[in-house]
Design goal:
Layout: H1 3-15, H2 18-25, H3 29-43, E1 48-51, E2 54-57, H4 59-86, E3 90-98, H5 106-117, E4 120-128, H6 130-138, E5 144-147, E6 157-172, E7 182-183, E8 192-195, H7 202-214, E9 220-224, H8 231-236, E10 242-245, E11 256-261, E12 267-275, H9 281-296
Helix pairs in contact: 1-2, 1-4, 5-9
Length: 302
């Protein structure tokens, strides 16, 4: 018995006629009749009552028909799922996002676009800092990450450059420089700099301090924020100023003003992080969609 016999059985049951079933199956009637007899013999039951103008199901046939249909449906679903997995359009993708990354319009745009292209893929998202994302990636609790390089384990995490996001100066509302559209960092020498712990994003942390050095000043480090996005409430509280990714201008706009930075200005670099080694088609498919989305949807209004 093989899958053909289930297809023969179901087709004859649906047409009620062996000759019509043979035509639908693209075969001759005698071989089909012979195959059905062999199936009945192997099962030890009669599936059909032979009648002058066709066939009808026996009690055994009526009982077994739903099972035969289910087997054919499972086979079809098995093949569809296998092809979907091979094309990166089926499965479950666990995505890790570094702090403030979800605020970048290109990221939700890419996720929405991927969901439209591959509706058979379920997505789960989790936001954390770069070290935690790498640990989750290497412990197989995540499949792909969008992080802020560098990564703590460069031997086991492959980093693929994604984009360099511009940065802005965040000032508390009412600051003397509120009406300036662009500010040179040298003018902030006396202002406490609100920044996040370096271990949460060493690349961005170092880029901020390097920009201050290039401007000829050493920042006065003020209150430390628990995460990158956490700098905004502290600025709103009047505890200092901060250098933030441009996408954070969407937060607390009532208590904070955002300003372009005159050169030298740091960038908030983002990259894709995946495990070293061969990746399944699903990962490659998502990376392609993500990279294209960032190329075409990156620019944000200041």
């Amino acid at each position: 018995m093989d899958i053909r016999h289930f297809r023969y059985f179901v087709t004859i049951a649906e047409t009620g006629n062996i000759t019509k079933a043979a035509e639908k199956l693209g075969m001759e009637q005698p071989p089909l009749s012979q195959q059905i007899r062999r199936l009945e013999s192997s099962l030890g039951v009669s599936l059909f009552r032979r009648q002058p103008r066709g066939v009808s199901l026996t009690e055994a046939g009526l009982t077994l028909l739903p099972h035969a249909r289910l087997i054919l449906d499972l086979r079809r679903q098995f093949i569809e799922d296998a092809h979907g997995l091979a094309q990166g359009k089926k499965g479950h993708l666990r995505i890790g996002l570094a702090g403030a990354v979800p605020l970048l319009p290109s990221i939700p745009f890419a996720i929405r676009q991927f969901s439209n292209i591959a509706p058979g893929v379920t997505l789960s998202l989790e936001e954390s800092n770069t070290p935690a994302l790498c640990e989750a990636l290497l412990s197989y609790r995540m499949d792909i990450t969008i992080l802020r390089p560098p990564v703590p384990d460069q031997a086991n995490v492959r980093v693929i450059p994604l984009l360099d996001e511009p940065t802005l100066i965040a000032l508390p509302k009412g600051h003397p420089f509120t009406n300036l559209p662009e500010i040179h960092l040298s003018r902030l020498a006396a202002e406490p700099l609100i920044i996040f712990p370096r271990e949460l994003g060493p690349g961005f942390f170092d880029a901020i301090l390097a920009a201050y050095r290039d401007a000829g000043i050493t920042p006065s480090l003020g209150q430390q924020a628990p995460q990158i996005a956490g700098t905004i409430p502290l600025v709103a509280a009047g505890l200092g100023v901060s250098i933030v990714p441009q996408s954070l201008h969407q937060l607390h706009t009532g208590g904070v003003t955002f300003h372009k930075i005159a050169r030298p200005a740091p960038h908030a670099t983002l990259a894709i992080g995946i495990r070293m080694g061969e990746q399944p088609p699903l990962i490659h498919h998502f990376i392609t969609v993500l990279q294209q989305a960032c190329k075409t949807h990156m620019e944000l209004p200041a």
